[in-house]
Amino acid sequence: MTRHTKPILAEVAARRDDLIALTQGLIRIPTLNPPGQNYRALVEWLGARLEASGFTVELIRATGAIGDSDRYPRWNLVARREGARPGDCVHFNSHHDVVEVGHGWTRDPFGGEVEGGRIYGRGACDMKGGLATSVIAAEAFIAARPDFKGAIEISATADEESGGYGGVAYLAEQGRFDPDRVQHVIIPEPLNKDRICLGHRGVWWAEIETQGRIAHGSMPFLGDSAIRHMGAVLEEMERTLYPLLASKRTEMPVVPEGAKQSTLNINSIHGGEREPDEDYTGFPAPCVADRCRIVIDRRFLIEEDISEVKAEVAALMERVKAERPGFVYEIRDMHEVIPTMTAEDAPVVTSTAAAIEKVLGQRPEYVVSPGTYDQKHIDRIGRLKNCIAYGPGILDLAHQPDEWIGIDDMIDSAGVMALVLDELL
Ligand SMILES: [Zn+2]
């Protein structure tokens, strides 16, 4: 620690109780998604606090976005604090929604209990703790350097857990992440306080349908089973596609190790008769299935092109078709995200790396996420490449029962974020 950084870190340390109270306050507003509860209550509560510390606060509803309705409006907060002189803008973006509680809790999921240096609750780690950390970092930095140049923005956005369309995507479409407005973005997702996440792999979701002809189950030769056709598709995937994907390795530092290759998950399979209602006690009817559908989730690497990813599956279907008389199929695109990776020499990366060394006395680890997060919208819609995920908390605890965040980890991360502001502003 140098004479220069000491006052900033002292301001962070002095806010320990404040950081705990802020995290608890956020946890105690259950912003469950789906369906998207209490979004307005959370942004109002946080907005009042940020206004009191000198930020200009806007509450923005993503009217008309996917998921937005009068019953469950998608509310977002953007707070901005101008410095004493012109300069860059550093933006901290956190999502304020949390996933369902699920089973297995031994604590009140919305109580914000503190014990043994941890704060417990749904969203403690993913990512209300990160949101609180960025607020404290900004307030501590401003107290230590009131004459800073540029601007600081803090956003709390909706719906990251369901794709971010009523949150970051909406704000990006409104120009909120245009490079002339915001120059550096940090997303405090829980990736451990000593790791910098540069980006994520790509995604292609598609539905594949095989078609057949319905007939009586006692005379299946009079029909054509869509399920048997799909069986042939799955067999061909095992025989050729999975080995091909396993052979593709990336230079991206993806964690965990298993995600350093291309992957494919089959999310669901449905064929034939609809599943009976729970209160139905009879037998199913004997029918040959005339439709079978699977939804595939293909995760791809920065070295792969999405057209090549799609072409592999199309070629596989054609191979099956060539071998099976009467084989009819359709592939329907559902959703796609291009991989993104911020360069290691981008300013937000180098300044965060330097700050981690100063606070933790070690060099950061650079990682890439196996799944996507809101960086996709900042990259694609906002066209801003200088963006990372960095924040306290252990990723494995996200979405689990008894989710928690370590208070010391938040303090360390707040110190890192405050020093990043010092470096960039
Ligand atoms: Zn998250």
UniProtKB/TrEMBL annotation:
Gene Ontology biological process terms from the UniProt entry: lysine biosynthetic process via diaminopimelate
InterPro entries to which the protein is assigned, alphabetical: ArgE/DapE, ArgE/DapE_CS, Bact_exopeptidase_dim_dom, Peptidase_M20, Peptidase_M20_dimer, Peptidase_M20A
Biological or metabolic pathway of the protein: Amino-acid biosynthesis; L-lysine biosynthesis via DAP pathway; LL-2,6-diaminopimelate from (S)-tetrahydrodipicolinate (succinylase route): step 3/3
Matches recorded under PROSITE patterns: ARGE_DAPE_CPG2_2
Catalyses which reaction(s): N-succinyl-(2S,6S)-2,6-diaminopimelate + H2O = (2S,6S)-2,6-diaminopimelate + succinate
Known cofactor(s): Zn(2+); Co(2+)
Keywords for the protein's UniProt record, in alphabetical order: Cobalt, Hydrolase, Metal-binding, Zinc
Protein EC: 3.5.1.18
Molecular function GO labels: metal ion binding; succinyl-diaminopimelate desuccinylase activity
Start and end residues of each Peptidase M20 dimerisation domain: 199-323
Gene3D superfamilies assigned to the protein according to its UniProt record, in alphabetical order: 3.30.70.360, Zn peptidases
NCBIfam families: DapE-ArgE, PRK13013.1
Family the entry assigns: Belongs to the peptidase M20A family.
Protein name, per record: Probable succinyl-diaminopimelate desuccinylase
Organism expressing this protein natively: Maritimibacter fusiformis
